[in-house]
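User: quick one, fold this
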Amino acid sequence: MFFRQKKAVIVKMQLLLVLVFLSANAYGQKITIVTEENPPYNYKVDGEVVGVSVAVVEAVLKEVDVSATINSYPWPRAYKMALENENTLIFSISRIPTRENSFKWIGEIAPSEFYLFSLRSRKDIEISNLEDAKKYSIGTVKNEASEQFLTTNGFSNIQSNVSYKSNLKKLLIGRIDLWPMAELVAYEILKSEGHGSRDILKKAYKMEGFSAGNMFMAFSQNTPDKLVEEFREALKTIKTNGIYQKILDRHLQ
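Assistant:
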């Protein structure tokens, strides 16, 4: 009798350990965080990834008590990782209809406005609606939101390139007519390439309704819902307690 009871206790303990192990693997797995070079939202300084979006993500990580390294890659690679891998968090990502079901969205992390930029010297470029832009060549980045948005809207005059900087260079030498970019990112890249004045660029057309004008963070589809919900609640918390606004004030003023 004693041995049967002892054996039953051992079996129960083994089952409990299995359940704990499964629970830890379901919700305590290591997460991968990916982003791109996209100042002032996320960019490297002396090997460290910084920026307003980075600060928001780090505040969320602190709130959920999760430690993870933020990795910066070219956008096509970061996007592919978030599409295909489990437990992968991606930011700053635009939320557009073609992406809606590809990710588990956490929420908005930074404001942004998108424009089709042209050179101010190009007096021949006049755009009053999105359809007008189809007359001009446009430089995009592979799998970037503006490329997906324009393709979905019937654009075929697109040159898909590897980086935002390469598109700026093409714009400056006349190889493309339009450069779709978030306003702050466009000016930061212009500055980093040695162009002190913003005046060489013109906002040829505001991309109304594109990504609701904001940057987002999102998890890959193969991520436990419990973990996703914890991150959503953490983002809500830092917006409620004032941490989020302090980050925006510090980085965007």
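User: anything notable?
Assistant: The chain is about 40% helix and 25% strand.
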